[in-house]
Amino acid sequence: MGSRFETCKLRDEQHYRNLEHEKQYFLMLILGDFQDAMIIPKDVVPQFKGEIPGEIKLETRNGYSHTIVVAKNQE
Question: What global pTM score does this model have?
Answer without folding.
Answer: 0.39
